[in-house]
């Protein structure tokens, strides 16, 4: 699938078929994440592929009952958890060099978006999940000190078709020469 088509047609999917994802397809998706750019190429991202049903279920319980992705985390064939090594992104010679602090969220997001678009191009579905109990999820997955849980996505074949959600018009979000100017 061409990249612009993938960007335009990707949707957050919250219902999954039980069909498995083969290892080659999974590796293609993970490899796309690996090619994302990162702060000084520090590649702070780490990914945990969760196949075990009991672990998926425990992770689903880290989403509150109002989170619409809860069942998807429990039922999709795979869950990909994105973690970050802390203290790498946003630094020069070990010192934080911007007002943003650690840039791990930015770098992990870039890798996740590669992963999500690659998955979509292969007919797979995803939905970012950020609204979870990150500390509890890290505990379940035995994420070591110095790393943190950032987000996860179920991964599998879609069992629903979704219309696009609305987006702001370019005129609302793009300015020329200075903020707010047409
Ligand atoms: C950082 C981030 C966190 C998100 N967290 C959740 C979540 O916890 N649960 C959920 O169902 N969707 C979550 N979403 C999905 C958004 O609701 C979705 O991307 C948005 O409504 C636009 O829909 P679309 O992805 O189909 O274009 C998250 C998306 C992002 C980017």
Descriptive notes:
With 182 residues, this protein is of the alpha+beta class. Helix 1 (3-9) crosses helix 5 (104-121). It contains seven helices and five strands. Strands 1-2-5 form a three-stranded antiparallel sheet. The structure holds flavin mononucleotide. The site of flavin mononucleotide has 11 residues, from loops.
Bound molecules: flavin mononucleotide
Silhouette:
globular
- Structure summary, number of beta strands: 5
User: What portion of residues is helical?
Assistant: 25-40%
Low-confidence stretches: none
What's the Cα radius of gyration? Answer: 17 Å
- Strand proportion, as a percent range, falls in 5-15%
Distance separating the two termini: 34 Å
Largest sheet: 3 strands, antiparallel
Please work out how many helical segments DSSP would assign. Answer: 7
Descriptive labels:
182 residues; alpha+beta; 3-stranded antiparallel β-sheet; two-stranded antiparallel ribbon; 7 helices; 34% helix; 15% strand; globular; binds flavin mononucleotide
Give a short overview.
The protein is α+β, with helices and mostly antiparallel strands and about 180 residues long. Helix content is about 35%, strand content about 15%.
Provide the fold topology.
Blueprint: H1 3-9, H2 23-34, E1 45-50, H3 53-60, H4 70-75, E2 78-85, E3 91-92, E4 95-96, H5 104-121, H6 134-140, E5 147-155, H7 170-173
Antiparallel strand pairs: 1-2, 2-5, 3-4
Helix pairs in contact: 1-5, 2-5
The structure holds flavin mononucleotide.
């Amino acid at each position: 699938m061409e990249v612009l088509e993938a960007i335009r047609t990707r949707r957050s999917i919250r219902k999954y078929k039980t069909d498995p994802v083969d290892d080659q397809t999974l590796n293609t998706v993970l490899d796309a994440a690996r090619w994302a750019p990162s702060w000084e190429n520090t590649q702070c991202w780490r990914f945990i592929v969760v196949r075990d049903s009991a672990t998926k279920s425990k992770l689903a319980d880290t989403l509150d009952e109002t989170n619409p992705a809860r069942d998807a985390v429990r039922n999709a064939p795979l869950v990909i958890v994105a973690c970050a090594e802390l203290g790498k992104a946003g630094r020069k010679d070990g010192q934080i060099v911007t007002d943003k602090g650690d840039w791990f969220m930015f770098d992990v997001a870039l890798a996740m978006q590669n992963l999500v678009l690659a998955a979509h191009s292969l007919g797979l579905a995803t939905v970012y999940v950020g609204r979870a109990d990150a500390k509890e999820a890290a505990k379940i997955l035995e994420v070591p000190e110095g790393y943190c849980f950032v987000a996860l996505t179920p991964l599998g074949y879609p069992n629903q078709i979704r219309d696009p959600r609305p987006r702001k018009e370019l005129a609302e979000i793009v300015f020329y020469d200075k903020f707010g100017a047409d």
